[in-house]
Amino acid sequence: MTAALSCLVTVAHAADAYPSRPVRLIIPYSPGGAADVPGRIVTQKMSGLLGQQVVVDNRPGAGGLIGAELTARAAPDGYTLMIIANTHYVSSSLRSKLAFHPVNDFTHVVSFLSAPSVLAVNPSLGAKTMKDLIAMAKAAPGKIDFASSGNGSTQHLLGALLMRMGCFQMTHVPYKGSGPAMADLLGGQVKVGFPGIALAMPHLKSGKLRALGVSSDRRSPELPDVPTIAEAGVPGYSATQWLGFAGPKGLPAEVVTRIGNATRATVESPEVVKGLRGAGGEVFLSASPKDFLAFSREEAVKWARVVKESGAQVN
Asked: Could you give the CA distance from residue 77 to residue 158 in angstroms, rounded to a whole number?
């Protein structure tokens, strides 16, 4: 009986002790990017709740797969975590060989952000609604160009998914980053794009771009008068960029619970909510690690199909 109680005390102490040193958070994307900014907003607040510093380690490359591999190979002790995103499954689908399984080699802890894109057009195109765009594209298949931040990027695949579900064709024009794509969209060299809301907002307000729809399954608080793409004419369309926390396969349950609870408490903070909205996102909390894993499996299947149908390849 004494031995059993001793074991229970030891387990409880171990759970209470985590984390006893700084936690390394791998962000597998560049500093200042769409994953880095909201990731830092959340982890700055989380550090205080955890009682230990969450140290960001940017490891960009291969569409996030370099950082993902480092995470998959790390010890499952809770001291190496990563930000996982929908692009994790896009990048995995673009490659025939991986050093890890994109779903099974990770512990999915909790999601925390959803960041829709906006279907934006240059006003010179003349399309004022989603239905206008579809009608124009069907009347002249492939004549309308749409810009993306690169071959196989989220913007590329948002367009590919839209064309498949809407049964029309546009011509994809890949750029080397969101900046050049936005510059040509504003200049009218291309007519359609899928920028993030934060990037597009000043140009929408100035009238240099027109919003036809947002990619999420509900309207954005930042653009309440803009319908979802599903509302606007492509039923069932829903595709957003999202972020969450993951770790190596086999993270202890107490670590998953502690990180999950700290994340939930963090995103309830009004200042964090405001910061995430400023970065173009909304709080998106999974109900449980099991739900986050199920959602991730669905995302992996969806994006693998879109990648295959789009013909996207790694440059």
From this structure: 36
- For helices 178-187 and 197-206, the axis angle rounded to 10 degrees is 20
Classify the phi-psi angles of 71: left when phi > 0, otherwise alpha if psi is within -120 to 50, otherwise beta. Answer: alpha
What gap in Å lies between CA 285 and CA 191, rounded to an integer? 35
Q: Domain check: are 199 and 223 in the same one?
A: yes
178 and 262 together in one domain: no
Q: What is the pLDDT of residues 228-268, one digit of tens each?
A: 999 999 999 999 999 999 999 999 999 999 999 999 999 99
Q: Residue holding tokens 């099974």?
A: 104
Span 146-183, pLDDT tens digits? 999 888 888 999 999 999 999 999 999 999 888 899 99
- What is residue 45's three-state secondary structure? helix
Does 111 lie in the same domain as 20?
Answer: yes
Q: Of 78, 81, 189, which Cα lies nearest the Cα of 125?
A: 189
Contacts of 261 (CB under 8 A, 6+ apart): none
Tokens 């504003």 locate to 186
Extended strands (E) in the chain: 23-27, 54-58, 80-85, 106-115, 118-121, 145-148, 171-174, 192-193, 210-214, 241-248, 282-283
Average pLDDT, the chain: 92
102: domain CATH number?
3.40.190.150
Q: What is the pTM of this model?
A: 0.86
> By C-alpha distance, which of 175, 254, 252 is closest to 12?
254
User: Tokens 């894109």 map to which residue?
Assistant: 117
Cβ–Cβ < 8 Å for 237, 247:
no
CA atoms within 13 A on the CB side of 246: 30
CB 173 within 8 A of CB 192: no
Q: What's the sign of the alpha-carbon dihedral 167, 169, 170, 173?
A: positive
